[in-house]
Amino acid sequence: MSGNSDPLTPRAKLAVTAGKAAAAVSRAAGRGSGSVIGGRVALKLDPDLLARLATHLDVILVSATNGKTTTTRLIAEALGAAGPVVSNALGANMPAGITSALAGGSEAKFAVIEVDEKYLSGVARDTDPKCIALLNLSRDQLDRAAETRMMAEHWREGLAGSKAVVVANADDPLVVWAASSSPNVMWVAAGQMWKDDAWSCPSCGGVMQRPGDDWFCGDCGFRRPTPTWALSGDHVLDPHGSAWPIHLQLPGRANKANAASSAAVAAVFGVPPQVALERMYQVQAVAGRYDVVQFMQRDLRLLLAKNPAGWLETFSLIDPPPTPVILSVNARGADGTDTSWLWDVDYTRLTGHPIFVLGDRKLDLAVRLEVANQSFQVCETLDQAVQLAPPGRIEVIANYTAFQDLRRRVGN
Fold first, then answer.
1. CA-CA distance, 353 to 50, in Å (whole number)?
2. Which of 78, 72, 205 lies closest to 133, judged by CA?
3. Are 42 and 15 in contact (CB under 8 A)?
4. Which helix (DSSP H) or strand (DSSP E) does residue 177 occupy?
5. Phi, psi torsion values for 12, nearest 5 degrees
6. What is the tens place of the pLDDT at every residue in 18-66?
7. Sheet holding 243-245, edge to edge
8. Alpha-carbon torsion (400, 403, 405, 408), positive or negative
9. Pairing mode, if any, of strands 58-63 and 110-114?
C-alpha cells in the first residue's frame, strides 16, 4: 500500500487529533514529550487505532533487554535509504507511546518501532510486522517483568506462526528458544557478554554447555543455530561471506553487535550492507546516550545502564583509570523498584577509578560498592560530584530515571 493512502476512519482521525492535543498540553506543562499521554488519550477514543495506523506501513519491531533504543535508531537510519521512516526514537516503547509515534507517520513507508519486552506479542498482533529483531534477554525490572525463561516462553508463544522475518541473536539461548517457534528466522552471531541468565536450558532445564562461543544442552540437544550473519571484529559478515566494515560514532562492542543486527534487518528490505552501515555512521548519540556535554567547565559523557548486562557492557567502554566515574541509581516506577540487581553487577571492574555515588538509592549502591572493596564518595547532587572529581573527562553512568534527571540538570 502506498504511504499516501488513508486507512483512518473519522473516529480514528478524531482520536489522533485528540492525542496530539493532549501531547501538546503535556509538553507545554513541562512534563516531557507527551507521547505517552497522547497515545493513551488516542487509544481510549479508538482502541483499534494502533492497528489502523500500521496498515499502510512496513513495520519493523525491535525488542530486547538492552540495546533496543540504539538498534531502533540504527535500523531507522539504514532504512532511510529505501524510503521515509517513522520511529519512536525517544524510547516510548509501550502501546501508548508507539501509537503516538505512528500517528505522526502518515507519509512514511517504514515504521521502525522499539517495543518493551512485555508488550512484544501484543504489538506484533496489532501491527502485523514484516520483520522482528530480537537482540537479547536478561534480568531486568525484577518487580515488573517476568523471569527471563518466562519472558522467552511468552515471546515464543507470540511468535508461533508469525509471517514476519525474525532477525535473532544466535548467541543468546533464550532468544533462540523464543525465535525457534517462528517459521522464518535469520540468525545473527551478535555475541553475548552477559551469560548469567543462560546457564540452564530454556527447553528442558538441563545445564547448558558453553565451550567457547558455542552452546548446547547435553540433555535435550537444544543448540546454537548456524548464523547467516555475524559480527567479526570490526566487520559484519553477510550470508555470502563478504566482510563489510563497521564505522560507528557510538562506542563499544555492544553497538557493533547492534549494527550487525541492523544490517541484517536492512537487507530484508533490500538495503545493501555497505549502504546500511554507511548510513549508521551518522548516529552520534541516541536519546542522550553517549552524549558528551559541558557542565561546570567539565566534559561529562552520559551513559545509560539499567541492569547487570547493561552495566557490564558499559564498564567495557569507559576510559581507563584514573578517569573519574559518577554512578547514579534510582528505583522509581520506570526503573523497577527492586534494586537487588545491584548485587549481580561486578563493580570490581571500577577498581582504580575515583567513584562518586548519586541518586535516590545511592545508599543501596554505596553498600554494594563497600562489599566490592571500592573507594567511593556519596554525594547529594551532580554539582557536588563534579566539584569533587579529579581533572579529566568524567564518565557518568545512570539507570533510566536517574539518567533523565541528569540530562535535565546538564540541559541536554
1. 47
2. 72
3. yes
4. helix 173-179
5. -65, -40
6. 888 888 887 787 776 777 888 888 888 889 999 999 999 999 999 999 9
7. 85-87, 110-114, 58-63, 131-134, 165-169, 185-189, 229-232, 235-237, 243-245
8. negative
9. parallel
